[in-house]
Protein backbone atom coordinates (compact mmCIF):
# COMPACT_ATOMS: atom_id res chain seq x y z
CA UNK A 1 0.00 0.00 0.00
CA UNK A 2 1.24 3.52 -0.81
CA UNK A 3 0.86 5.76 2.24
CA UNK A 4 1.15 9.54 2.44
CA UNK A 5 1.84 11.16 5.82
CA UNK A 6 1.24 14.91 6.03
CA UNK A 7 3.25 16.21 8.97
CA UNK A 8 6.52 14.66 10.10
CA UNK A 9 6.86 15.51 13.78
CA UNK A 10 7.50 12.86 16.42
CA UNK A 11 4.26 11.03 15.73
CA UNK A 12 4.54 11.20 11.95
CA UNK A 13 8.13 9.97 11.93
CA UNK A 14 7.39 7.05 14.26
CA UNK A 15 4.32 6.11 12.21
CA UNK A 16 6.33 6.22 8.97
CA UNK A 17 8.88 3.81 10.42
CA UNK A 18 6.23 1.36 11.67
CA UNK A 19 4.33 1.38 8.37
CA UNK A 20 7.58 0.89 6.47
CA UNK A 21 8.43 -2.10 8.66
CA UNK A 22 5.06 -3.59 7.72
CA UNK A 23 5.99 -3.39 4.05
CA UNK A 24 4.13 -0.24 3.02
CA UNK A 25 5.70 2.37 0.74
CA UNK A 26 5.67 5.59 2.77
CA UNK A 27 6.03 9.21 1.66
CA UNK A 28 6.17 12.03 4.22
CA UNK A 29 5.54 15.72 3.58
CA UNK A 30 6.70 18.49 5.89
CA UNK A 31 7.93 22.06 5.70
CA UNK A 32 11.51 21.21 6.70
CA UNK A 33 14.06 18.82 5.23
CA UNK A 34 14.26 15.42 6.90
CA UNK A 35 16.17 12.24 6.15
CA UNK A 36 14.62 8.80 6.57
CA UNK A 37 15.95 5.37 5.74
CA UNK A 38 13.70 3.71 3.12
CA UNK A 39 11.10 6.50 3.41
CA UNK A 40 10.54 9.21 0.80
CA UNK A 41 10.40 12.77 2.10
CA UNK A 42 8.98 15.77 0.25
CA UNK A 43 9.74 19.26 1.56
CA UNK A 44 6.61 21.34 0.93
CA UNK A 45 4.11 23.63 2.56
CA UNK A 46 0.91 21.58 2.31
CA UNK A 47 -1.07 24.79 1.76
CA UNK A 48 0.47 24.55 -1.73
CA UNK A 49 0.70 20.77 -1.99
CA UNK A 50 1.70 19.28 -5.34
CA UNK A 51 2.24 15.57 -5.84
CA UNK A 52 3.00 15.47 -9.56
CA UNK A 53 6.06 13.23 -9.23
CA UNK A 54 4.75 11.15 -6.32
CA UNK A 55 3.26 7.64 -6.55
CA UNK A 56 -0.49 7.11 -6.43
CA UNK A 57 -1.52 6.99 -2.78
CA UNK A 58 -4.03 4.66 -1.13
CA UNK A 59 -4.00 5.96 2.45
CA UNK A 60 -3.34 9.41 3.89
CA UNK A 61 -2.53 10.36 7.48
CA UNK A 62 -2.99 14.04 8.38
CA UNK A 63 -0.88 14.71 11.50
CA UNK A 64 -0.51 18.48 11.67
CA UNK A 65 0.63 20.74 14.52
CA UNK A 66 0.10 24.51 14.71
CA UNK A 67 3.23 26.56 15.32
CA UNK A 68 1.39 28.55 18.01
CA UNK A 69 -1.58 27.67 20.22
CA UNK A 70 -4.11 30.28 19.15
CA UNK A 71 -7.19 30.29 16.92
CA UNK A 72 -5.44 31.95 13.99
CA UNK A 73 -2.74 29.28 13.82
CA UNK A 74 -5.22 26.44 14.37
CA UNK A 75 -7.32 27.72 11.47
CA UNK A 76 -4.25 28.07 9.26
CA UNK A 77 -3.10 24.55 10.13
CA UNK A 78 -6.32 22.55 10.17
CA UNK A 79 -8.88 24.47 8.10
CA UNK A 80 -6.87 26.25 5.42
CA UNK A 81 -5.14 22.98 4.43
CA UNK A 82 -8.29 20.98 3.69
CA UNK A 83 -8.97 22.26 0.18
CA UNK A 84 -5.37 22.15 -1.18
CA UNK A 85 -4.90 18.60 0.14
CA UNK A 86 -8.18 17.50 -1.44
CA UNK A 87 -7.22 19.08 -4.77
CA UNK A 88 -3.74 17.54 -4.77
CA UNK A 89 -5.17 14.04 -4.25
CA UNK A 90 -7.97 14.12 -6.82
CA UNK A 91 -6.21 11.73 -9.19
CA UNK A 92 -5.20 9.29 -6.44
CA UNK A 93 -7.13 6.10 -5.56
CA UNK A 94 -7.66 7.16 -1.94
CA UNK A 95 -9.22 4.49 0.26
CA UNK A 96 -8.90 6.20 3.63
CA UNK A 97 -7.90 9.58 5.10
CA UNK A 98 -6.98 9.60 8.80
CA UNK A 99 -7.34 13.06 10.36
CA UNK A 100 -5.81 13.68 13.80
CA UNK A 101 -7.94 16.05 15.87
CA UNK A 102 -8.22 16.30 19.68
CA UNK A 103 -10.56 15.71 22.62
CA UNK A 104 -10.61 19.50 22.88
CA UNK A 105 -13.72 19.35 20.68
CA UNK A 106 -15.66 18.28 23.79
CA UNK A 107 -16.62 21.07 26.16
CA UNK A 108 -17.75 18.94 29.13
CA UNK A 109 -16.06 20.39 32.20
CA UNK A 110 -17.82 19.08 35.29
CA UNK A 111 -16.41 15.57 35.49
CA UNK A 112 -18.89 14.10 32.98
CA UNK A 113 -18.20 10.88 31.10
CA UNK A 114 -17.93 11.15 27.32
CA UNK A 115 -17.62 8.42 24.69
CA UNK A 116 -17.53 8.07 20.91
CA UNK A 117 -21.25 8.81 20.67
CA UNK A 118 -20.91 12.16 22.47
CA UNK A 119 -21.51 15.05 20.08
CA UNK A 120 -18.56 17.43 19.79
CA UNK A 121 -19.57 20.79 21.23
CA UNK A 122 -17.65 23.44 23.12
CA UNK A 123 -17.45 27.17 23.81
CA UNK A 124 -13.65 27.01 23.66
CA UNK A 125 -12.51 28.92 20.52
CA UNK A 126 -9.74 26.46 19.67
CA UNK A 127 -12.10 23.54 20.20
CA UNK A 128 -14.63 25.23 17.91
CA UNK A 129 -11.91 25.64 15.28
CA UNK A 130 -11.14 21.92 15.47
CA UNK A 131 -14.85 21.06 15.15
CA UNK A 132 -15.03 23.26 12.04
CA UNK A 133 -11.95 21.52 10.66
CA UNK A 134 -13.44 18.07 11.28
CA UNK A 135 -16.62 19.10 9.49
CA UNK A 136 -14.70 20.54 6.53
CA UNK A 137 -12.46 17.50 6.07
CA UNK A 138 -15.57 15.31 6.41
CA UNK A 139 -17.33 17.31 3.70
CA UNK A 140 -14.41 16.71 1.33
CA UNK A 141 -13.73 13.03 2.07
CA UNK A 142 -17.13 11.87 3.38
CA UNK A 143 -17.16 8.12 4.12
CA UNK A 144 -13.41 7.86 3.45
CA UNK A 145 -12.53 10.00 6.48
CA UNK A 146 -11.67 8.67 9.94
CA UNK A 147 -11.21 11.22 12.74
CA UNK A 148 -8.84 10.40 15.62
CA UNK A 149 -9.28 12.32 18.89
CA UNK A 150 -6.40 11.57 21.28
CA UNK A 151 -6.45 12.71 24.90
CA UNK A 152 -3.29 14.14 26.51
CA UNK A 153 -0.13 12.67 24.97
CA UNK A 154 2.76 11.58 27.15
CA UNK A 155 5.91 9.47 26.84
CA UNK A 156 8.56 7.91 29.06
CA UNK A 157 10.58 11.10 29.53
CA UNK A 158 7.56 13.32 30.30
CA UNK A 159 8.30 15.59 33.25
CA UNK A 160 5.21 17.82 33.32
CA UNK A 161 3.38 16.07 36.16
CA UNK A 162 6.52 15.76 38.29
CA UNK A 163 7.02 19.52 37.95
CA UNK A 164 3.35 20.12 38.72
CA UNK A 165 3.55 17.94 41.84
CA UNK A 166 6.48 20.00 43.12
CA UNK A 167 5.15 23.42 42.12
CA UNK A 168 1.50 23.11 43.24
CA UNK A 169 0.77 25.11 46.39
CA UNK A 170 -2.80 23.99 47.04
CA UNK A 171 -5.63 21.96 45.47
CA UNK A 172 -8.70 24.06 44.67
CA UNK A 173 -10.62 21.76 42.28
CA UNK A 174 -11.05 18.05 41.60
CA UNK A 175 -9.87 18.06 37.99
CA UNK A 176 -10.21 14.93 35.84
CA UNK A 177 -7.39 14.15 33.39
CA UNK A 178 -7.02 11.60 30.59
CA UNK A 179 -3.87 10.37 28.85
CA UNK A 180 -2.62 8.19 25.99
CA UNK A 181 1.01 7.17 25.46
CA UNK A 182 2.53 8.42 22.21
CA UNK A 183 3.56 4.86 21.34
CA UNK A 184 -0.07 3.78 21.63
CA UNK A 185 -1.17 6.63 19.37
CA UNK A 186 1.38 5.51 16.77
CA UNK A 187 0.54 1.86 17.37
CA UNK A 188 -3.17 2.44 16.86
CA UNK A 189 -2.63 4.53 13.72
CA UNK A 190 -0.58 1.65 12.32
CA UNK A 191 -3.21 -0.87 13.45
CA UNK A 192 -5.90 1.07 11.58
CA UNK A 193 -4.23 0.19 8.28
CA UNK A 194 -5.08 -3.48 8.94
CA UNK A 195 -8.81 -2.89 9.41
CA UNK A 196 -11.13 -3.53 6.47
CA UNK A 197 -13.62 -0.86 7.52
CA UNK A 198 -12.43 1.61 10.17
CA UNK A 199 -15.09 3.61 11.98
CA UNK A 200 -15.66 7.28 11.25
CA UNK A 201 -14.07 8.37 14.55
CA UNK A 202 -12.09 7.05 17.51
CA UNK A 203 -11.39 8.52 20.91
CA UNK A 204 -7.92 7.47 22.05
CA UNK A 205 -7.38 7.33 25.80
CA UNK A 206 -6.08 4.69 28.20
CA UNK A 207 -9.43 4.12 29.96
CA UNK A 208 -7.90 5.33 33.24
CA UNK A 209 -9.20 8.86 33.91
CA UNK A 210 -7.69 10.11 37.15
CA UNK A 211 -8.07 13.15 39.34
CA UNK A 212 -5.09 15.42 38.91
CA UNK A 213 -5.01 15.93 42.68
CA UNK A 214 -4.67 12.16 43.17
CA UNK A 215 -1.80 12.04 40.69
CA UNK A 216 -0.08 14.97 42.39
CA UNK A 217 -0.30 13.27 45.78
CA UNK A 218 1.05 9.97 44.44
CA UNK A 219 4.04 11.74 42.93
CA UNK A 220 4.59 13.91 46.02
CA UNK A 221 4.71 10.79 48.21
CA UNK A 222 7.09 9.18 45.74
CA UNK A 223 9.39 12.22 46.03
CA UNK A 224 9.08 12.33 49.85
CA UNK A 225 6.91 15.46 49.84
CA UNK A 226 3.86 15.96 52.04
CA UNK A 227 0.65 15.08 50.15
CA UNK A 228 -2.23 17.55 50.10
CA UNK A 229 -5.46 17.04 52.01
CA UNK A 230 -8.23 17.07 49.38
CA UNK A 231 -11.54 18.51 50.54
CA UNK A 232 -14.52 16.37 49.50
CA UNK A 233 -16.64 19.38 48.53
CA UNK A 234 -14.27 20.83 45.91
CA UNK A 235 -15.89 21.46 42.49
CA UNK A 236 -15.21 18.92 39.74
CA UNK A 237 -13.73 20.03 36.42
CA UNK A 238 -12.57 18.24 33.29
CA UNK A 239 -14.11 15.15 31.73
CA UNK A 240 -13.71 11.37 31.82
CA UNK A 241 -13.19 9.51 28.57
CA UNK A 242 -14.58 6.09 27.70
CA UNK A 243 -12.92 5.12 24.41
CA UNK A 244 -15.51 2.55 23.28
CA UNK A 245 -14.46 2.31 19.63
CA UNK A 246 -10.84 1.77 20.66
CA UNK A 247 -11.88 -1.12 22.89
CA UNK A 248 -14.03 -2.62 20.14
CA UNK A 249 -11.28 -2.34 17.52
CA UNK A 250 -9.14 -5.16 18.92
CA UNK A 251 -6.09 -2.98 19.53
CA UNK A 252 -4.25 -3.82 22.75
CA UNK A 253 -2.73 -0.86 24.61
CA UNK A 254 0.98 -1.14 25.34
CA UNK A 255 0.57 1.37 28.16
CA UNK A 256 -2.86 0.80 29.78
CA UNK A 257 -2.18 3.18 32.70
CA UNK A 258 -0.05 6.31 32.37
CA UNK A 259 0.71 6.41 36.11
CA UNK A 260 2.80 3.25 35.73
CA UNK A 261 5.16 5.19 33.46
CA UNK A 262 5.30 8.24 35.75
CA UNK A 263 6.02 6.09 38.80
CA UNK A 264 9.04 4.61 37.02
CA UNK A 265 10.33 7.96 35.75
TrEMBL record:
Q: Name one GO molecular function term.
A: aldehyde dehydrogenase (NAD+) activity
Q: Which GO terms describe its cellular component?
A: cytoplasm
Which Pfam families does UniProt cross-reference here? Epimerase
Q: Name all NAD-dependent epimerase/dehydratase domain ranges.
A: 3-163
Instruction: Please give the SUPFAM superfamilies that the UniProt record associates with this protein.
Output: NAD(P)-binding Rossmann-fold domains
From the Swiss-Prot or TrEMBL record, give the protein name.
NAD-dependent epimerase/dehydratase domain-containing protein
Which organism does this record belong to?
Acinetobacter populi
Output the lineage of the source organism.
Bacteria, Pseudomonadati, Pseudomonadota, Gammaproteobacteria, Moraxellales
Amino acid sequence: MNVLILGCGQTGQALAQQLNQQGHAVTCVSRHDKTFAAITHITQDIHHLTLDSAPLFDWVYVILSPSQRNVEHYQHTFIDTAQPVFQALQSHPIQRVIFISSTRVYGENSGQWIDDDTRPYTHDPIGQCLIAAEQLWSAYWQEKLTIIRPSGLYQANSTYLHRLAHDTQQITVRHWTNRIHRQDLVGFLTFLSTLKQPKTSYLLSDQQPMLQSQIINILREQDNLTPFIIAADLPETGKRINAIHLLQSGYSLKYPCFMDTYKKA
